[in-house]
Amino acid sequence: MGLAADNIRSLTEQLPAGVSLVAVSKTYPAETIAEAYAAGQRIFGESRPLEMRDKYEALPKDIEWHMIGHLQTNKVKYIVPFVSLIHSADSRRLIEAVDACAARCGRTVDVLLEVHVAAEESKSGWEPSELVSYVESGEWRKLRNVRFRGVMGIATNTDDIGRIRADFEALARIKSELGAYFDQTFDTLSMGMSDDYEIAIECGSTMVRIGSRIFGARTYR
Ligand SMILES: *Cc1c(COP(=O)(O)O)cnc(C)c1O
After folding, report:
1. Which of 4, 123, 137, 206 has the greatest CB tally within 10 Å of its CB?
2. Distance of alpha carbon 206 from alpha carbon 111, whole angstroms
3. Is the pLDDT of residue 217 over 90?
4. What is the β-pairing status of strands 85-89 and 109-115?
5. Which residues surround ligand 1 with Cβ inside 6 Å?
6. pLDDT tens, 39-70?
7. Could you tell me which of 150, 155, 162, 151 has the C-alpha nearest to residue 192?
8. pLDDT above 90: residue 119
9. Ligand 1 atom showing the smallest separation from residue 212 Cα
């Protein structure tokens, strides 16, 4: 067994009950995922639709595939037939496209509302005030084939632990505020990555998305 399997085992032991682990396998080949699978990991996160579809086709069918990267509406069709959770639902248009595609597939797709809390403008997600308006409007209630499961966010990329903590606290607050509009299945707070997941857990994360700490540094093509 290789390093990824060892890292999966030690992380799984370390995470408190109620916090699930998304192994972020973007850029890594199917063989590496198979090794983590053999160590018991079943949830994998990807950020590119076609890459995720190819891996879905190549790997065991009891894997839960999570889309964590920005999703364009014209790419929704590649993943809706099998995806377990879309973390990156960041606009009304995208959510409506997922709903329409899911209806055609006869599926209901779970989504998280991605919220922009980081200092960087480049990061994606709803601005909190726009998200609150969208949810308050209730227009999402007409959607039959998406189920809103909670909130996802990325903290500022900084060494300032106070700032990271403030971002996670903001996400937890938004999740709790929005919870009033949904039923008890709005239960997921996806926050925390390799460098900040311990802080995220202290702030109430229920799902951490960890890549490099499992698989090593990525090389982007
Ligand atoms: C790549 C990525 C991760 C994992 O990042 P690591 O620092 O490698 O753990 C988590 N969440 C999102 C949205 C990502 O794009």
Report:
1. 4
2. 15
3. no
4. parallel
5. 24, 26, 47, 68-69, 154, 193-195, 209-213
6. 999 999 999 999 999 999 999 999 999 999 99
7. 155
8. no
9. 8
